[in-house]
């Protein structure tokens, strides 16, 4: 019997005994689990990193299969609203309150026996013929109608509360709700009843929150630059208005303070005259 037990003990390999003892230790199974989890996590991260670096996903503007990435339209600057700017000229300027009397007179529109200030500029071709009127800046068409006095009218809304106005058009190429790009034709120049003397022309305005801006000062200026310019002008105007109000108040205070003195002088002069008359009567 003892011989058989000895024989069975001899048949068990020494290596198997060590493995069995190793597996009986408490920290073995948690360690194996953590190692397996680490392998799985590393595989997932590797797969995601490989997918993000694939050729189908561009990392920059140059990786988009040679396709150009559009630039923000906010970097656009106002341009002359004519397809051929060199063939047109300004026939009537914007009415500037700070201009000379002669310049202001030239910027007036006479209609129905009334003079109106020109809130924009009038463009006409040197040849006197019609020409294509284009969008001065990209934007959305908010108005495209025919006015009985102004002809066809188109208005385009831009960023920063800016609106461009095109009128005295003989025809239009856009409708309300359209998106127009800078330089795209919006209509053709024509005549209107409001300013007959201008003949064939296109009237163009730039407005910031309803305030008219001189288009000539807006050339090559971005929407944000025009916004700063208008804000600066408003601040200066408010400052002048405030100074005028304060001056009128000070003048009224001075008038009220000098009034009692004048009354006293009148009273004293009348008293002296009365005393003189009474003395003369006594004599």
Write the layout of secondary structure elements.
Elements (H helix, E strand, L loop, with lengths): L1 H10 L2 H10 L4 H25 L35 E5 L8 H6 L1 E4 L2 E4 L3 E5 L6 E3 L4 E9 L3 E7 L4 E11 L6 E2 L4 E5 L12 E7 L2 E3 L1 H4 L4 H60 L1
Antiparallel strand pairs: 1-4, 2-3, 4-11, 5-10, 6-7, 6-9, 7-8, 8-10, 8-11, 11-12
Structure report:
The chain is an alpha+beta fold and 283 residues long. The protein contains six helices and twelve strands. The protein has helices spanning 2-11, 14-23, 28-52, 101-106, 215-218, 223-282; strands at 88-92, 108-111, 114-117, 121-125, 132-134, 139-147, 151-157, 162-172, 179-180, 185-189, 202-208, 211-213. Strands 1, 4, 5, 6, 7, 8, 9, 10, 11 and 12 form a ten-stranded antiparallel β-sheet that branches. A hairpin with a 3-residue loop joins strand 6 and strand 7 (151-157). The radius of gyration is 43 Å and the shape is elongated. Mean pLDDT is 78; it is low at 54-72.
Provide a quick synopsis of the model.
This protein has 283 residues and is an alpha+beta fold. It has helices at 2-11, 14-23, 28-52, 101-106, 215-218, 223-282, and strands at 88-92, 108-111, 114-117, 121-125, 132-134, 139-147, 151-157, 162-172, 179-180, 185-189, 202-208, 211-213. Strand 2 and strand 3 (114-117) form a beta hairpin.
Taking the alpha carbons of the first and last residues, their distance comes to 179 Å
Can you tell me the residue ranges where pLDDT is under 50 for at least 5 consecutive residues?
A: 54-72
**Class computed from helices, strands and strand pairing:** alpha+beta
Total helices: the number is 6
Please state roughly what percent of the residues sit in beta strands, choosing from under 5%, 5-15%, 15-25%, 25-35%, 35-45% or over 45%. Answer: 15-25%
Outline, from the CA principal axes?
elongated
Report on the biggest sheet: 10 strands, antiparallel
Please give the share of residues in helix: 40-55%
């Amino acid at each position: 019997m003892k011989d058989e037990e000895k024989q069975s003990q001899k048949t068990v390999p020494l290596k198997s005994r060590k493995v069995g003892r190793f597996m009986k230790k408490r920290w073995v199974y948690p360690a194996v689990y953590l190692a397996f989890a680490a392998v799985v996590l590393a595989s997932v991260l590797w797969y995601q990193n490989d997918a993000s670096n694939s050729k189908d996903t561009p990392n920059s503007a140059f990786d988009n299969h040679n396709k150009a990435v559009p630039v923000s339209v906010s970097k656009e600057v106002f341009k002359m609203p004519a397809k051929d700017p060199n063939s047109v000229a300004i026939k009537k300027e914007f009415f500037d309150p700070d201009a000379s009397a002669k310049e202001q007179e030239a910027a007036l529109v006479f209609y129905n026996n009334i003079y109106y200030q020109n809130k924009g500029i009038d463009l006409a071709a040197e040849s006197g013929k019609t020409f294509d009127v284009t969008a001065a800046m990209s934007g959305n068409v908010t108005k495209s109608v025919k006015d009985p006095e102004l002809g066809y009218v188109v208005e385009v809304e831009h960023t920063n509360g800016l609106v461009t106005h095109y009128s005295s058009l003989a025809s239009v190429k856009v409708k309300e709700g359209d998106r127009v790009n800078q330089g795209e034709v919006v209509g053709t120049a024509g005549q209107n009843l409001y300013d007959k003397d201008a003949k064939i022309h296109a009237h163009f305005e730039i407005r910031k929150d309803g305030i008219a801006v001189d288009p000539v000062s807006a050339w090559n200026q971005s929407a944000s630059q025009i916004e700063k310019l208008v804000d600066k002008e408003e601040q200066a105007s408010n400052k002048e208005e405030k100074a005028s109000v304060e001056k009128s108040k000070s003048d009224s205070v001075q008038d009220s303070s000098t009034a009692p003195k004048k009354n006293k002088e009148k009273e004293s002069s009348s008293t002296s005259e009365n005393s003189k008359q009474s003395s003369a009567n006594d004599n």
